[in-house]
Model the fold of this input.
Amino acid sequence: MPDISCDVVVVGLGPGGEALVGRLAKAGLDVVAVEAELVGGECPYWGCIPSKMLIRAANLLAESRRAAGVAGTTTVEPDFSLVARRIRDEATDDWDDTVAADRVTAAGARLVRGHGRLDGDRRVTVGDETFVAAKGVVLNTGTTAAVPPIDGLAGTPYWTNREILKAEAAPASMIVIGGGAIGLELAQAFSRFGTEVTVLEVGPRILGVEEPESSELITSVLEAEGIGVHAGISIDAVAHDGEVFHVTCGDVTYEAERVLVAAGRRSRLDDIGLDTVGVDAGRFLTVDDSMAVKDGLWAIGDIAGRGAFTHVSMYQSERAARAILGEELGDYDASFPRVTFTDPEIGGVGMTEKQAREQGINVRIGSTDIAASSRGFVHGPGHEGLLKLVIDDDRDVIVGATSAGPAGGETLSALAVAVRAEIPLATLRNTIYAYPTFWRAIESAL
Done:
């Protein structure tokens, strides 16, 4: 078939890709949007939205159980079918992307279903069609669940984030391989629905990318809730006998009805034709602050290696749009906020104390115990938390912060602004913090 001309081809319609298509099409460009799976990507169908519905339901169960001694006596019986129905009917339309696809075409873009592959500079082939983009191509191919090469694992019916969020019932027992954000969120949620959960982490601690204090906090909370947490171990083999999983870790074998693999994510960079444009596919693509890989080729989202979060992808989408449209970019915000939606929530922004010291910053730390705050006292059960500020003592600004506790992700918002804007500590100290709120802990930490 003859080549088809257009202005821009966007390969991969996760949140950032979909937003970029709409932005460029509404600006008058001829845009081709390519998607091999569901328009909207991982977040609305197998990630952020359905998982937070599950977490919300699980947290309601936990909160009702905390009423004893504070507000009365309660009895609550979990019914997983209710949240499963919400995920199927409200969050994902039974994993149907018609609404999202209609948004793309309503914006004026052409939606092409299939696997998009580069075929030289500014060229993308989908099936038997080849699109030639005058301005260039944007890659937003995202990630897939990384499956570690554990002996026997590949031949078992393990779950990833996709299968678990399609579950119609909570299993009696579950082993979670991986102690990062996804693994911990789902471990706690299913535990609150009655599943006996064990978390296995090969690293020295769970939630290893955050501050050690956060790891200690969430470990103690999960163990108090009856979840087994084992870090710093080797996972030697996984077997399935038709009914039960057997996970061997040295001299110990753990057994469960289900295994969830939550051991990180792998960039989808294979078989997208990077070799045809002279780009080596490593773990991520190297981009500049306009998200350009090279002239006429941009990459956004997880594959850019600057944070695997929907909000980061959306931010990068806007930067790529400005670059393509010739608009002013402004400086790149590298201090992205992140939240692990366990209970308590673990929020972080900017650098950890370790990262700051490794960069040679003269570090000073401010911290406070959320439980010891007035709001923590009022809150009662479920008030565990901490707030930690990583301060550049030479410049007298915050370069990183952790907000862990009830609504920890919300408290983080003020700290994200402080880090991004490099607000002087003198200004932060001379600020009124509403009483009694969790975010007033910022004043205490200062």
